[in-house]
Amino acid sequence: MSEQDKHWLVREETIRKLWIIFIAILALTVIAGIFVHQHVHFGIEDSFAFFSWYGFITCIGMVVFAKLLGFFLKRPEDYYHDTGNEDGK
Amino acid sequence: MTELLFPPGLLLVIGALFMPMGKNIRNALLFILPVLCMALIWSAPAGYVLSMPFLGFELEPIKVTTTGQLFATIFTLMALVGGIFAFRTASTLELTAAFVYAGSAIGVTLAGDLITVFIFWEIMAIGSTLVIWAAGHDDAYRASIRYLMIHLLGGLFLMVGITGHVVETGSIRFEALSLDSISQYLILAGFLVNAGAPPFSAWIADAYPEASPSGSVFLSAFTTKTAVFTLLVAFPGTWILIPIGIYMIFYGIIYALLENDMRRILAYSIVNQVGFMITGIGIGTEMALNGAAAHAFAHIIYKALLLMSAGAVLYRTGKRRCTDLGGLFQSMPWTTLLGTIGALAISSFPFTSGFVTKSMIAQSAADQHMAIIWFSLAAASAGVFLHAGIKFPWFVFFQKDSGMRPAEAPRNMLLAMTMFAVLCVGLGVFPQPLYDILPYPVNYEPYTAAHLVAQFQLLLFAGLAFFVMLPMMKRTLTISLDFDWFYRKLLPVISQQTINSVSSFANMLTNVAHNLLQAVCNSSQIKNLSRYHLAESWPTGSMVLWIGIILGGYLLLDIYI
Known about the structure:
The structure holds two protein chains of two kinds. By secondary structure, chain A is mainly α. Chain A folds into two domains: 1-36; 40-89. Chain A has helices at 12-35, 50-73, and one strand spanning 74-76. Chain A starts with 11 loop residues before the first helix and ends in a 13-residue tail after the last strand. Chain B is an all-alpha fold. Among the domains of chain B are: 236-473, no CATH class; 486-560, no CATH class. In chain B, helix 12 runs antiparallel to helix 14. The chains are: A mainly alpha, B mainly alpha. At the A-B interface, helix 1, helix 2 and strand 1 of A face helix 6, helix 10, helix 15, helix 18 and strand 3 of B. Strand 1 (74-76) of chain A pairs antiparallel with strand 3 (478-480) of chain B, so a sheet runs across the interface.
């Protein structure tokens, strides 16, 4: 399928623009954070752009953790069907 | 007007039994019953109690509390909108079962004593099992039996606990219980099984996604949230609930990240969201309990909305795996939009209902200076956006183009989704009506500049993490092992081996006995005796008959002499 046949939302140029807008909004939230004083409960929340890096790093951590756990937990879809009539029907 | 003599939940349960009388009657009941039920719930003021004596106890089949009214209201609304979503496609069995199920859940929320709670609890288990059954395929049948086993086990905990509690205290009142003995722990365990707490979390993702497109919408609302309600009433401020809740939150996120089936992703995120509520109940301050109750209310709406959009996709495409889906926004734009609103609400995006409810729980952790819990909840909020807020709409409606161009969802489905989407945004922008019906007075303002900035930073950078890590999130055709492995894999193997070894032992014994008998027969003159009638070998049937006659004779003698 050529670029022009695709839905406008999935054309490469649109996707590039969406990335630029997304990064601009990200920057905006960080800048806004400089002017807004966070109510400090535990001391670390007023570090620079705390919620940005905290959200980013914890999410990366969760994805990596899930991936690692997946090596142990993932099984083929028909894993439970192999046992045949396990519950009698 | 305070003459509320009929439990509103029972109205739905009994009314539902008339549904099989005809399609028109059924469709009328789908609308009339919830409306009547809602009117009944709000006809009595908080504090109203209807009591009646029963076997020496004072039953309270209706006890109106603010918390109960809140949950009964959202359950009734769910029945109404779920009916709109389902009525064209669902079978009469499913709708009848769903209304019995909804009615019994409402019955629990307005119950004043533990016996009433238990009775409705068990009706709920039956109703929900039938909803899964109504899907009518083999996998659903198997899943429903596993589901029923878990819930009967939970019901057993509850019954033993209640019995012990009544013996110890002499009270059947359904109120805050202190964990004094094993009985109260068993009651707690019974409630927690239905909440999807560890180790029994797997039943949600095992059973719910096997139901029909509309069945899973009903299922998502009642069982787990009724458990949240009972925990809220009976065990507020029980510290053990905090680690349980935190575990459920991260369990839901991690398993949803590993999952490929779109409805199973949403099922895992039910565990995750209920985890937030249970953490709030464990913290136990007024703010935390308000947060837990409000979050349950908001959660039912957006989770139903998400499962409706997934149901519409399943109904139109027949596919449920993320690997088979994608690019559906092109031909199902409304479903995409409405599903995305649900996804934003579950992620507590500002100006949606989740934002004004979930943050109350986090705030109460901060107020209590519970640092670890607060940091966990913040990370979990980002994680919710990751696993449900973006992952679900991205893999179902966007990502690669699957080439499928299914028609837009039917109009009744769109109507139901629109109603809930409007509520998601409406409660987010004007939370006051919800705050007004919470159990405690609300002294909380979600829309401060600091809170908005914090939430935008947290969520948007979580979104960045999603797209950065996208190569690692490639879906695979797999399922993930869970606690249910023990009863789906290990137990059958063990029992099969036990049966094998027992039967081989039995075979050995029979052989030995047989050989001995042969030897005896050969050595003695038994063969010669067989010409006498009583020495012949008799058929077993006649033995059984004679034993039956003798025992029957004893019985008659015992009765008449």
